[in-house]
Every structure is written in C-alpha cells, then in structure tokens.
Amino acid sequence: MENINDYGIRPREVADKSNDGALQKAVRLALDVETDALRLNTQTFNRNKYRTVRKLDDYNGLKDRARKIKEDAIEDLPRLIHKLTSSIKARGGNVFFANSGEEANEYIAEVCKSHRAKLVVKSKSITSEEIGLNHKLERIGVEVAETDLAEFILQVSKEQPSHIVAPAIHRSRETISELFKRNFDTDLPLNSGEELTRFAREILRQKFISADIGITGANLIAADEGAILLVESEGNIRLATQLPSVHIAVAGIEKIIPSVNDFGVFVELLAASGTGQSLSSYTNILEPPISLPVLNLNGRNDTEREFHLVLLDNGRTKMRQDEVLREALYCIRCSACMNSCANFQAVGGHAFGGECYTGGIGGAWTLGTSGSLKKASFAELCTGCSRCVPNCPVEIDIPGLNTAIKSRLTEAAGGPTIQQRFFGNFPALARIAEIAPSISNKFNKLSIARSLLENTAGIDKRRAIPLFAEQTLEKQYNKYRRDNKPAEKRTFTEASVILFCDVFTNYNNPDVGMATARVCDKLHLPISLSEVMDDGRGLLSQGLIGKAQKKARSTAAYLLSLVEEGNDIIVAEPSVLSMFRRDYRKLLNDVEEFEMISHHTYDPVEYIEHLLANGDEELRSTLMKIAIPTHRIFYHAHCQLKTIGGGNATPAFFGRFGLTVEVSNVECCGMAGSFGYKTEFYDISKRVGDDLMNQINRELSLHGDTVILASGTSCREQIRGEHHVDVRHPIEFLDALLA
C-alpha cells in the first residue's frame, strides 16, 4: 500500500483523470475502498432535503427567483464587480481582482508576509481548494489550519475533499477515531461523535487563539453594500473572521449578486437543498472590515482590523462567454446534485470528481477553471438520469452540461468510438437483427460473440443482452387490428390516442406496446400506432448531440402533425417520453413546438390517471368493474419519468382501487440505459442497483406474493438480472386485471 494514505485513497492520482483509463481506475478504487458511510450520508441528506422543501411555501417559486437573480447577475457581472469594489473600498477594505489562481495565491502570500503571519486559520472554501492556496502558504512557511471539522479530518489524513458541503462524507466515525489515535498522542476512547468533536475542538481552539490571519470563502457577495453571506454549521467562520485582526475572503466572481436584499432567497434554499436543514446553524452577513475591537489573543499589538477581498476569475469569464458552460456559473454550491446522484452515492467525489470540483456539476467547473477536457472526463459518470435537475435550487440542466462535455471529448478525440457508434446507432442494428431475430438472439448468447462485443464495443459479457422480438410491435399491432377495431371517439374528450412506436419498444419490447393498445381498447379509448421513429435518445446518451438534434427535429415534425390532427400521444418507454418533455426543449430550439409536444405526450398509466383526475366518469365506471386482487404492488419509477412529473401516476392510479403500493425510494436503478452495459461501468451499475434489490428483497421476504412493477425497460432488465423474478410494466399489470 505504498503511497496510499491511511484510508486507502491516492487523492491526487484518483483525482487526476487526464491519463487514459484513469477514470476507470478511480471508479474501481472507489468501489473497493468506499464504505457504507458515503451512501448513508448522501442519502440521509437527500431524504432530509425532500422533507424540508415540502415545508417551504413556494419552493418552485423560490427556485425561479434564485435562477433569475443569478442569470441577471452573470449578465451584468462587469458592472457588479465595479460596484462591489467601490462598496468595499468605501469602507476601508481592499479588493484584488485575480485573473488566475497563481495571481490570487501570490496576493494572499504577500498579505501574509506583510503581517509576518505564522499561522492562518481557514474555513471551508472550495475556491481556495481550486487554486491550491494551502500549498502556496505552506511553501512560504505559513501554517494553515483547516477549522471546519471535515476539512480538519482531511488535512490530518492528507486527502482531497470528496464532497462540496461535507468534504469527509465518505468517512465513518470508526475510521475518524482510528485516524486521530494514530496521528495524535491521546488515550481518549474517541468512540462517539461527541468525543471526536470535542477532541478536534480543543486542538482548533488553540489555533484560533494563536492565529494571525483568518481566511474564508463566501457563499454570496452583495454588490450594493459589499456584504458577504457566509453559511456554516460549526461556528468556526465566526471565530476565523472575528479573532484575527486580518480577514481575507477568497471568492469567485460568480458569487456576486446585485443586492443584499436577495440573500433571503438563497438562505432559504441553501441549507434545505444541501443538508435538509430549514436553516443552517449559523448564518453570517458581514460588512467587512467589521467594527469589533481587535482582541490580540495571540499576543500581537494590532490596533485596526484589515480586510482583503480576493475576487477570482480563473476561467470564469471564459465560462460566461461559453453558451453552454455559462449555466454552470449559476451554481450556489449546495451539493444537492451530489446527494441525489445514484452514482455519486456509490463512489463519491474521489472518483466522480476532479482535483477540486465533484459530482454532476463538477465536470463543467473542472473544465471551466482548468481549461482541460481530460480533467473533466469524469462527466462520463453522469448517466443522464436527470434526478439532479429537480433538486437543483437554481434549475441548472446538469445532465445537459455533462452531455456537452462528452460531445467535446468526442470531438477532441477525432470522432466517436466504436462503443458510441454501437449504442448511438442501435436503431440501424435493430433493423438488421430483426431480419432473423432468432438467429440474432442465439448469436448474442454465444461466448465468442460476447467476447467479441466486449473487446470491440465494450459491452460487458456479464450483462445479458435483451432479446429481439420474434415479431415487432408494428407487425403484432397490425395483425391485432385486423381482428379488433379501435374504439370510437368519446364524448369526454375529442382527442384520439396515438401509441408512439419507439425503436426499443418496437424491436425488443413489443409486449408493453401491445398491452397499451389492449388496455385502451378495453377502456374505449381510440388508439392507433405511429410510424416507427428514432427519437434520438441513443445518440444523445453517447454525447452525439448534432446527430441527436437531427433525429429530434425529424421526429418532432411528425409528432406536431399528430398533435395538430387532435391526437394525444402515449409513449411506453420513459426515456423517450423524457426526450419529448425535457430534452427536446434544447434540441429543437423552438419553445412553441416543444410546448406543443410536451403537453400532449404521456406515459400509458399517466394518461389514464390524467383522464380520471379530470373527471372522466365513463372511464371511471369502466374501471370500477375490475376484479381487484389482494396482491401488494412494489413499484419502481424510472428516474427520468420521476423528473418529468410522471412518477407518481402509477401509485395514484392503483391506489384508487385500494391496492397497497410500496414505492421504491431509490433515485435510479443503476442500469441507466446503455451505461449498465458498458464494461467500464458495469460494476458501478451493479453497486448502484444494490439499494433497489435490497428493497425488493425486504418486500418479498415479508409479502411473497407482491407484484413487482417497473416503468423503465432498463429498470426491468436490472431487476431481472439480479432476481430472476417476474417484473412487468404497470400497463401490463393493468392489462391482466382487465382481462
């Protein structure tokens, strides 16, 4: 274990993804060494977040306001920088604009030298991590004491942070106890959180008293009054800003907003989004230099307080000018995207991160501040599940940022890999396989074929490949319609229903499509089948944005023609529905067309529930004749279906009939479409799936006759691969009930 720290992490090696295969190596190492603490802590934050935001009077309204404030601030940034500089200087403070991390470090080092500083106390600051401030100060003989408990732990263990808000989130109480006992001379038991905290506090108290300078970051800075918002849980920021006579704040220029009056919106959102607290333990609004007397507890004879604000660019201006990366500047560092990310829950920021920034938003920030695409390659760990999207308090399209990074990586590499071509062009492969599906299926099961696929396209041979249907949905539907006429239009709604024939449902999963058609017939809903269309999801998932856009425009034109003819559209595959109701907003660049499509596309059960919720008594009367079984239902909603608002439809629908529905509480099953098939990500996919499998195991152990339902194709594949149980789409279960 040479050159590995006490926790088994090689921080710098793991963080630097610039070498070929380094990302896979980092993932493998993280899977080997990460403990349950990481998953437990991130999921606890996430559950608390859901609980807390439900208490907010207008959560979505707050998010809209926060987004607007940040958008306006970034647009008006040059003027706000000038105004902020004037506000700080008018109070006797100093402002330094640093174009680079090196300039920022040099300035701070000179301030330390001018005060003959020997000890600096520092609060948690991701911006100081970005520029490597600690190393710079240590090289000139200044001791830097991290005073945030988690940062203190990492400083002792010589690790990189693995999380923005909770840098040591991957560590358990037991590993921290062992770390302290090995690095400090103590006979204390250090078994409880209270004992560990007390031990660290005694060490840090002496640092605070002896410190010459305090260094902090800033959550936000108001340009009008030069006020700084600092949110914390431990009180260390108050000590760092009040005990030393000199306070240095390091902040990226994106932290500037117009007015101190806007702080309230972000105070409500920050703690709720990050840790699930209604309010952080300490919320500081400073107008430095503060007017408190100088205490000189360290024996110095300073008579006045001194304040320095270091405003950091370090790539931010270029990000502002980049039409894609600009959106990342709206980030308020709450960590909600990390806590809600199933992959991050499994491997943490040592794999899902760069030298500083981690998680879903980390790729864009690593690229923006380092200028290196290779260092941002951990964006490949973003599956596009989109669960971070509704959790972001400033509504950043984080999957979109990561898809753009994947696209740029592909362009820099000279074009797509064989793997990208395979998954992106699956529709063409499916058409070829359907010429002789039984032969294709037999070939795909051969060990030599699996080895070939693994060695050429990187499709892990441990993962079962879905079978091609003997007859496509298109063929089955046409045969069915020869004997079964669709229902007539009903008085409740003039709309007819079109079942969208997506590629995967047509070639691999026609049973769900046929169940949808039969259910609509039984409920007297007129339904017909669309043409077979490629929506572009496969291409988009591989970062092939240009090609995905062409498919999207072609499919959108067809969908619009259907809607204009008075049709609603049912989409059996959630990832395709998510394209229509989320991704097409960007791919089409036409808000009116997007709105028209998104407002007329539905999941099968969601559409029926929609009609019931809007008072369709004829439909309700038909459904009330169902012979309701006594079975319980365990339901897992596809991650993207939840994001677009369709995840609750199935529990609501079956709940109408008194059925007990146990709902999975995991963010993603781990399969995530093509992600779970890839050799480099197979293990993380299975690790992520553990939570869902454990929930199903518990349910089946208590209720052996529970019906397992899952709305996504990849979700069902993941469950079947582990449990070998009968798992169905909700519409298939409803079809059986209506038989």
Please tell me about this protein's structure.
There is one protein chain. The protein has 739 residues and is α/β, with parallel strands linked by helices. Among the domains are: 58-263 and 271-312, Rossmann fold, CATH 3.40.50.10420; 473-737, no CATH class. The strands form four sheets. The protein has a six-stranded parallel sheet, with helices on both faces. Strands 8-5-6-9 form a four-stranded mixed sheet, sandwiched between helices. Helix 36 (713-723) links the parallel strand 17 (707-710) and strand 18. It is elongated. The model is unreliable at 1-19 (pLDDT under 50).
Name the beta content range. Answer: 5-15%
Cα end-to-end separation: 62 Å
Count of runs of 4 or more consecutive helical residues: 37
Based on helices, strands and strand pairing, what is the structural class?
A: alpha/beta
What's the rounded overall pLDDT mean?
Answer: 94
How would you summarize what this structure contains?
51% of the residues lie in helices and 11% in strands. The chain has 739 residues and is of the alpha/beta class.
Give structural attributes.
739 residues, alpha/beta, Rossmann fold, six-stranded parallel β-sheet, four-stranded mixed β-sheet, 37 helices, 51% helix, elongated, disordered N terminus
